[in-house]
Write a structure and sequence with these properties.
The complex is a heterotetramer of chains A (44), B (250), C (229) and D (231). Chain A has one helix and no strands. Chain A is mainly alpha-helical. Chain A is rod-shaped. Chain B is mainly α and 250 residues long. Chain B contains six helices and no strands. Chain B is globular and about 80 Å long. Chain C is mainly α. In chain C, α2 packs across α5, α5 packs antiparallel against α9 and α6 runs antiparallel to α8. Chain D is of the alpha/beta class and 231 residues long.
């Protein structure tokens, strides 16, 4: 059925997009964190 | 530089805190719960049929996008106000706008999928839809301006002013689109779908809003940290650069 | 020792218009472009009835496209030899720069709009009665003021940056949606398109006026922080 | 001519001595690069100071900092009695800078350009005329469009703009570049006259044999720091 693809598709689009964004953010900040000593990190 | 080590817990590159880690786990559980309820547990709607299931992902997403832009506006104002001037506000504004654009992009897609099933069309020139599209483009422009470069405070001041201009622009655009739309009554299919929701459906929608809010908070914290790290890396670079320059003179 | 803001704004507007009068870039390139767009619409839409119906919208669409070029030109004059930098280093009040340049852009837009309305009358058989004429002139004046203000504001922001050709439309087009809507509806009544009465057009002027006032005032305040480093 | 300018004195530093420029350990950035890495410099009224140094040493940045175009990142700096750390915009009224660009409108004539800059500062038409006369721009040249001028004539037009604006401190970046021998002599004459009339001039140049004769004092700028001046 057509509807099923649309419904599952919209959940998939949401989760994949948010997931990719989250992954890219974490990866980027990990790479940056290597260059900053732990005591300087603003959230600690 | 050795990106091959995929161990996540190495202390020298951790960006999470116990709080965000717990928040992340709760969010993940919430996402699973929401998907299960949205896709399987809730009943089909009397008018919309199965397509109502999209709503449990679409409505919270759209709502969060608006919330994200409100946060951007407030933190921009906080930056511009002398007594609370801090780059933290600027970074929150930027991170929030980025997440807002993401959520808004997603909800434009899910919304048009829902529209195709319910109205038989991907897009209608409904006032809310049209305003949303304009809003999306406006914040894409805001993000482009954030990336223009310059010193931190330069970036912060420029983008804060732009964000406040956007706050001014949105009601004006919305009002004009609504006026325009009122001329074309036949186009507004949206207003007529009077949904009477039962308890479970309402609960799932509510759950969706909570789950998306948690998602937003998690993303905002992490994105903001990444921006703070970036600024820090720039600053330490400056200290080293000054020292290196001074050393050139014998 | 320093001149007042309004005097400086007047000097800047006069100088901008003098530059245009000498170089004729807008007269010889932007206005022909706008009229050409009108002609291209006729090819694309290919029906007298449709053209007559959409003429008001096409006039304002062509105006908004032309605003992009007009603004880009207005700031290209300033950045070609570092004049904007020189004005900033001369301590010129940004409010004066904003007002001066907006006025100059508005004057050029007025000329452009007259050309476009004439083109609409000739090419699309638009029809203007006396009452419609008054409405049309008012619409053009008010809409032009608003357009010139936002365009100057965002044009100044984009002026010094790389990728300004694409940044300006990205920033400007969503903002001017109210002008496109309001001015098009008002012009429809002025032209009597689809039998709309002239009196139905006047309420739209309220929207245009709010836009013009808002962005003139806010633009004057925001221009400095947006343009200055 | 400069009598109208109030000299704002600040008790904290040496402004009371009449220094037009006083930089102490000034740091300024271009992007994230420290173009000035702790520069200290003092310039007195009426001086013609030559800034020497290789390309990329920070000459242009020092001029732009003094003109209020570049933010002061660290250290302290006061120009014409204005504290650059807090009131960067205020200094601009006192200062004229000519960098690699002349700040001219190429479609306008010499007279229109100078007149425009004069009008911005409220100069009378007599004052504008006098400024053009001092730069040798009256007569036939005044009605010529800037796009038709030689590099030297453009430079002179820009200088006339500074005179018309009654700038107190002139900041000139490689002013001799692109001028022929006659143009250079003329420029020197103009600058000496301006200094005699009370203006302070800082010239950044690496044409030493030319600018050295003009200057009343020289300092060398190396790696974003000034060598051979105070402290």
């Amino acid at each position: 059925m057509d509807d099923l693809g649309f419904i599952v598709g919209s959940y998939a689009v949401t989760l994949v997009a948010v997931g990719l964004f989250a992954w890219s953010v974490v990866r980027r900040s990990r790479r940056l964190a290597e260059q900053v000593p732990p005591e300087d990190r603003p959230w600690t | 530089m050795t990106a091959s080590t995929a161990t996540t817990g190495r202390p020298d590159r951790v960006t999470g805190t116990p709080f965000t880690r717990a928040l992340g786990i709760v969010t993940l559980v919430g996402v699973l719960w929401l998907s299960w309820f949205g896709l399987f547990v809730t009943p089909a709607d009397v008018n919309q049929g199965e397509s109502v299931r999209i709503m449990y992902a679409h409505v919270p997403g759209a709502w969060l996008a608006y919330l994200a832009f409100v946060v951007t506006g407030i933190s921009s104002a906080a930056y511009l106000w002398r007594r609370t001037r801090s780059l933290t506000w600027d970074r929150i504004a930027g991170a929030s706008a980025e997440i807002g654009v993401l959520f808004m992009g997603i909800s434009l897609v899910t919304g048009s999928l829902w529209g195709r099933l319910t109205w038989g069309t991907f897009w209608t020139w409904d006032a809310r839809l049209t305003t949303t599209a304009f809003l999306f483009v406006t914040y894409v422009g805001y993000l482009a301006v954030r990336n223009l470069g310059g010193s931190h405070h330069q970036r912060a001041r420029r983008s804060a002013v732009l964000a406040l201009l956007a706050v001014l622009e949105i009601p004006l655009v919305h009002f004009s689109v609504e006026l325009w739309n009122s001329l074309h009554q036949e186009a507004s299919v949206a207003g007529n779908t009077d949904v009477t929701m039962d308890g479970l459906m309402l609960f799932t929608l509510f759950l969706g809003v909570i789950v998306f809010t948690l998602m937003y908070v998690w993303l905002l914290l992490h994105r903001q940290r990444a921006l703070a790290l970036q600024d820090l890396v720039d600053d330490t670079g400056l200290d080293l650069a000054i020292a290196a320059r001074r050393a050139e003179v014998g | 020792m320093r001149s007042g803001t309004l005097a400086v704004a007047r000097a800047i507007a006069r100088r901008d218009l003098l530059v245009e009068w000498r170089s004729r870039v807008v007269t010889n390139q932007v206005i022909p472009f706008a009229v050409l767009v009108m002609v291209m619409f006729a090819f694309a839409l290919d029906s007298d009835a449709v053209l007559e119906r959409v003429a008001p919208g096409l006039v304002w669409l062509a105006t908004i496209f032309s605003v992009l070029f007009l603004t880009a030109r207005s700031f290209a004059v300033e950045t070609a030899d570092g004049a904007l930098d020189a004005m900033r280093s001369a301590g010129v009040n940004p409010v004066a720069i904003f007002l001066g340049k907006s006025v100059a852009v508005a004057v050029q837009l007025l000329v452009l709009d007259v050309a476009l309305v004439v083109a609409a009358v000739v090419l699309y058989r638009a029809d203007v009665s006396l009452g419609g004429g008054v409405l049309l002139v008012t619409t053009i004046l008010v809409a032009t003021t608003g357009l010139a203000s936002v365009a100057t504001l965002y044009g100044g922001l984009a002026a010094g940056t790389k990728g300004r050709e694409t940044l300006l439309p990205l920033l400007l087009l969503p903002v001017v949606a109210p002008v496109l809507i309001g001015a098009t509806r008002a012009t429809e009544s002025a032209f009597g398109t689809n039998g709309i009465a002239v009196s139905e057009g006047w309420p739209w002027l309220g929207l245009l006026a709010v836009f013009a006032v808002l962005f003139s005032v806010v633009g004057a305040v925001a221009f400095g922080p947006l343009v200055d480093e | 001519m400069s009598g109208a300018q109030p000299i704002v004195t600040s008790a904290a530093d040496g402004a009371a001595t009449g220094s037009v420029v006083e930089l102490i350990d000034a740091v300024a950035l271009i992007g994230s690069f420290p173009a000035l890495a702790g520069a200290s410099l003092r310039v007195e009224r009426g001086e013609i100071l030559l800034l020497r140094g290789p390309n990329g040493a920070g000459k242009t940045s020092l001029l732009r900092l003094c003109a209020g175009l570049l933010p002061l990142e660290r250290g302290s700096a006061s120009v014409c009695g204005v504290d650059l750390a807090t009131d960067r915009e205020l200094v601009r009224a006192h200062v004229g800078i000519i960098g690699h660009t002349n700040g001219l409108y190429h479609d306008l004539t010499v007279a229109e350009n100078v007149g425009f800059w004069g009008r911005l500062s409220g100069a009378t038409s007599a004052e504008v005329h006098e400024a053009m006369q001092r730069m040798g721009l009256d007569g036939r040249l005044s009605g010529v469009r800037v796009s038709k001028l030689s590099a030297g004539q453009r430079r002179r037009t820009a200088l006339a703009g500074l005179v018309a604006r009654r700038a107190e401190l002139w900041l000139l970046d490689e002013p001799h570049a692109g001028l022929d021998a006659d143009g250079r002599d003329e420029l020197d004459r103009v600058l000496r006259a301006a200094a005699a009339a009370g203006a302070t001039i800082i010239v950044a140049s690496h044409e030493l044999e030319r600018a050295g004769g003009l200057a009343t004092r020289q300092v060398e700028i190396v790696a974003g720091q000034v060598r051979g001046d105070l402290r």
